[in-house]
Design brief:
The complex is a heterodimer of chains A (about 550) and B (about 100). By secondary structure, chain A is an alpha+beta fold. Chain A contains 19 helices and 21 strands. In chain A, β18 and β19 form a beta hairpin. In chain A, α1 packs antiparallel against α4, α7 crosses α8 and α10 packs across α11. The longest helix of chain A has 23 residues. Chain B has about 100 residues and is an alpha+beta fold. Chain B contains 2 helices and 5 strands, in the order βββαββα. Chain B has a 5-stranded antiparallel sheet. Classes of the chains: A alpha+beta (about 550), B alpha+beta (about 100). The interface between A and B is medium-sized, with 30 and 25 residues. Bound molecules: iron/sulfur cluster.
């Protein structure tokens, strides 16, 4: 696993010392909030509805047991015993006291973690496919490139004051599990005609107020040109991105205003100026980073115990069907540990659960863990013969919920239970859907279903790309939920369509239930997923199901 | 052209913990909304807000939040403000951990 070098270490330590002093000056009254706010945001510290929140980066979603144990330690010592994993592969602590933040950041720095560039108008934590380095369908591990981008962008003087925040997502597989096309820059690895590695580059994606799917500006960019090209995009954006209006400042608006062809031409022109400056250092740097991401020596062993357990243990079989994915080594599997127990808060893990995950990673997954944007934890390399033991340990820790990719595997942002920007709650909606579908025991029959919930138009819960998206709004002082249908965050990305009038808090679960029952009636066969049925039939029959009781509601 | 003023309380977050606080008639900060001063007069509200804004060494982000009188003191009129008197709905954390801090 990649370890921070001395430069990173010194940089992070200096930043902790600097920010600790700034906190001291704030507490003494030497800094006003107006002066302090930008400083704390640069260090991932937010003030939410009930308390401060510290957002810690988990670069490209990769952790080892040491880091996970330290997160457990932070959760237990300075928070309320849990952490919340987010759609940006960060972890958020919801209850730190201002004066404890220096100690927390020091503890994080001890394991090479930090909260830098998790906020502000900078290049944010680069997100990657959570199956990176393990998936069977992968061309190559995208994380060395993500790390290269992290090193290049950290504290980059030119890009600390961008018009707005800037997000990069990367995947090494043709199947896009990293929602790359919702990012300012989406990088999808491709093979060139000669077998060499490169990227299809898309720009201008973003959810939020104006959701747009990124558009491809380069079908194949050789890997050697990656930094020069990304720098060219940022440089064009830095120049043209609108600073006059916060809501129009993202690259997606620049794309929208200029059009793809003009923007692509500007990027190419700037790239021509920049290329040649970067490549000399890129090769060796990338090789060095790549060596640090070398896959473990996958052990070979008999897998009979896995097959035998599948035959005799229905609970295990159910879990294996939903929570295992195909590893590049046939003897191994990728285990997705669901943080979506029915009725639980999506993405939350207790300190005790974090320690179980750290222990399992150490014993059975070559000391590797991943955090997915879908707010689950992955043990990326588990030998199949170890799966029954791992499953048993997860069961004991309340972590064996067999629902990955199903109705209750919901993405939900913190919403108005924590977030000061929220217009409505999202967590309790997710909890209620989970509980209802457990009661109905229908989700395995329904099959692949992505429900995504945001508590405001900022769309941290990715509702636009949910098969069912739920957006919480404040309509005349009442929590109201707008439902969108047919969104998709993969390589066939699409923004969901608004279904119609919003629903009151109590009406959301019955509405989702009606949709699901309608889908079961409408599908041609169990193999036709909700999204496929929606694409075949269009929104009309689903709308009809959603608003079946509309007359009654209006009359009420 | 100010929109019609509705009775309000001055609220903010405490600097050290971030916990929600309200301004009392005595000009001190309380953790219980019921103890807050419900201000019906727009000019007084503006003056109290300015007072609060001067106290950046103890609170963050003071603002006026509409409220209504209740049997024990001011009560929130908007759901966001109601959540602020309690804490999150997914865990019994925040003010609801200590019932003495919940005024409703
Ligand atoms: S979508 Fe809105 S409510 Fe949810 S976390 Fe983002 S800003 Fe907060």
């Amino acid at each position: 696993m990649y370890r921070y070098d001395d430069f990173d270490e010194a940089f992070v330590r200096n930043r902790v010392a600097q920010f600790s002093q700034q906190i001291g000056r704030r507490v003494e009254g030497a800094l006003t909030e107006d002066e302090f706010r930008p400083l704390r945001l640069m260090n991932g510290l937010y003030l939410q509805l009930h308390a401060y929140m510290l957002r810690v980066a988990i670069p490209y979603g990769t952790l080892d047991s040491r880091k996970m144990r330290q997160l457990a330690h932070v959760a237990e010592t300075w928070d309320k015993g849990y952490g919340h994993f987010t759609t940006r592969q960060n972890i958020q602590f919801n209850w730190p006291k201002l004066t404890d933040v220096p100690a927390i950041l020091t503890a994080l720095a001890d394991v090479g973690m930090h909260a830098i560039q998790t906020s502000g108008n900078t290049i944010r934590n680069v997100t990657a496919d959570h199956f990176a380095g393990a998936a069977a369908d992968e061309i190559a591990d995208p994380r060395p490139y993500a790390e290269l981008l992290r090193q290049w962008s950290t504290d980059h003087p030119e890009f600390q004051f961008l018009p707005r925040k800037f997000k990069i997502g990367i995947t090494g597989a043709p199947h896009d599990r990293a929602v790359t096309r919702s990012h300012d820059i989406g990088l999808q690895m491709r093979r060139g005609p000669d077998g060499s590695i490169g990227f299809e580059v898309s720009v201008g994606g973003g959810l939020g107020r104006t959701p747009l799917i990124a558009q491809s500006v380069r079908e194949f960019l050789p890997e050697a040109d990656l930094l020069a090209y990304v720098e060219a995009i940022l440089s064009v954006y830095n120049m043209l991105g609108r600073r006059d209006n916060k809501h129009k400042a993202r690259l997606k608006i620049t794309l929208h205003e200029l059009g793809r062809d003009t923007l692509a031409a500007l990027i190419e022109a700037r790239f021509e100026e920049l290329r040649g400056h970067v490549p000399e250092t890129l090769g060796p740097a990338l090789d060095r980073i790549r060596a640090a991401f070398a896959p473990p020596a996958f052990r070979q062993a008999d897998t009979a115990v896995h097959e035998a357990t599948l035959r005799v243990d229905p609970l295990y079989r159910r879990w294996a069907e939903t929570n295992l994915a195909e590893h590049r080594d046939a003897g191994h599997a990728m285990v997705t540990v669901s943080l979506k127990a029915h009725g639980a808060t999506p993405g939350d893990a207790s300190a005790a659960q974090m320690r179980v995950l750290a222990d399992l990673a150490e014993a059975y997954s070559y000391d590797e863990l991943r955090i997915s944007h879908e707010q689950n934890v992955i043990l990326p390399h588990v030998h199949k013969s170890d799966l029954p033991v791992v499953h048993a340990a997860l069961l004991r820790a309340g972590l064996a919920t067999a629902n990955v990719g199903l109705v209750s595997d919901i993405i939900a942002c913190p919403g108005m239970d924590y977030c000061s920007l929220a217009t409505a709650r999202s967590i309790p909606i997710a909890q209620a859907i989970g509980l209802r579908f457990k009661e109905l025991d229908l989700e395995h029959e329904i099959g692949p279903m992505k429900i995504k919930i945001s508590g405001c138009i900022n769309a941290c819960g990715h509702h636009h790309v949910g098969h069912i998206g739920i957006l919480g709004l404040d309509r005349a002082g009442v929590e109201t939920y707008q439902i969108t249908l047919g969104g998709d965050g993969t390589e066939t990305a699409a923004i969901g369509e608004k279904a119609g009038p919003g629903f009151a808090y109590d009406e959301v679960v019955p509405a989702v239930e009606r949709l699901m029952l309608a889908y079961l009636d409408l599908r041609t066969a169990p193999g036709e997923s909700f999204l496929e049925a929606f694409r075949r039939l269009g929104p009309a029959p689903f709308r009809a199901a959603l608003y079946e009781t509309e007359g009654a509601r209006d009359a009420a | 052209m100010s929109p019609r003023f509705s009775p309000s309380v001055v609220t903010a977050n405490a600097l050290l913990e971030g916990d929600v606080v309200w301004l009392t008639a005595d000009g001190v900060w309380t953790r219980r909304m019921a103890e807050a001063e419900l201000i019906a007069d727009p000019e007084r509200a503006e003056a109290r807000l300015q007072l609060a804004q001067g106290q950046h060494h103890s609170v963050v982000g003071p603002y006026l939040a509409p409220a209504k009188p209740g049997p024990n003191g001011p009560e929130p009129t908007h759901f966001r403000e109601a959540f602020r008197t309690r804490g999150p709905s997914n865990y019994p954390h925040g003010k609801q951990e200590d019932p003495a801090h919940v005024s409703l």
